[in-house]
Amino acid sequence: MTVDRARVSALVRELLEAIGEDPERPGLRQTPERVADAYVEFFAGVGADAAAPLAHTISVASGPAPETIPSGAVMVRDIAFRSICEHHLLPFRGRAHLAYLPGEQVVGLGALARVVDILSSRPQVQERLGEQIADAIATSLDARGVLVVLDAMHECVTMRGARQTESTTVTIAARGELAEPAARAELVTLLGGAR
User: What positions carry a catalytic annotation?
Assistant: First the structure.
């Protein structure tokens, strides 16, 4: 699905009028088009297949040591993401930390960041975002377990309402062997060193 830029622009113009502003004043004249351009970026993940980046896997059993299967987790920390809260249409941004226990197949590490980008580029809530990332990895790879930790700052908390300017929200989603807290304790400890 693509964002209807003309419609977004017209609606932003109407919104400016609804708040008592003049969309023709010099500072606002280009705002409707700018917002439409921003929404094309912000919502590029709407309708996109989040599992597509995980389609190309690499067999670790077909390399120079074919009997070698990873015994531990593959972890990618500090994947920067941004999204739009579906409740207030305000941004939230943070870091995603992903880990999975691979089977015979692994995936390029950049593919994990692309999954985060696709799923965060749509109206979201952080709780669902983490679950969707975990589901995409768990169903697309032969992973024995998946762990997703998101740490984000929400503008709906920092700029309005409670106005807690330093507050962050941490969510955890886990699948398979990492679903039990004791099984993921080591990985959560490793994440403690995340920036």
Answer: 85-88, 126, 154, 156
